[in-house]
């Protein structure tokens, strides 16, 4: 009887720990999804703003504006070190903007994937006046 109770308790602990691990994985995935959605929204708005005067900007000015717009729009203090790249096509008619970062697990840092790469890209036609 005592051995049976011990086995049942051990099995219950294993099942509960498995459920807790699954819940943590779900929450980590949700966090990454929220970061990507916020980055995509900021990138979309940034690219839209850049299309207005991209033809009249130098590559350095375009990059500077992209970084400033994106930083003003992206409000996730838990996400650091975002790389922003903006450029126009050879003829200047298309603006391409990318943002990328890595997100570290918050709940279970011992996961084999110690970080998840998050990348977004937007292309937009420049506005001709």
Question: How does this model look, in words?
Answer:
By secondary structure, the protein is α+β, with helices and mostly antiparallel strands. The chain has one domain. The chain contains two helices and three strands. It has helices spanning 2-53, 59-73, and strands at residues 83-88, 94-103, 116-125. It has a three-stranded antiparallel beta sheet. β1 and β2 form a beta hairpin. The longest helix is centred in the N-terminal third of the chain and has 52 residues, at 2-53. It is rod-shaped and about 85 Å long. The chain starts with a helix and ends with a strand.
Keywords:
129 residues; alpha+beta; 2 helices
Short characterization:
The chain is α+β, with helices and mostly antiparallel strands. The protein is built from two helices and three strands; from the N terminus they run ααβββ.
What's the arrangement of secondary structure elements?
Elements (H helix, E strand, L loop, with lengths): L1 H52 L5 H15 L9 E6 L5 E10 L12 E10 L4
Antiparallel strand pairs: 1-2, 2-3
Helix pairs in contact: 1-2
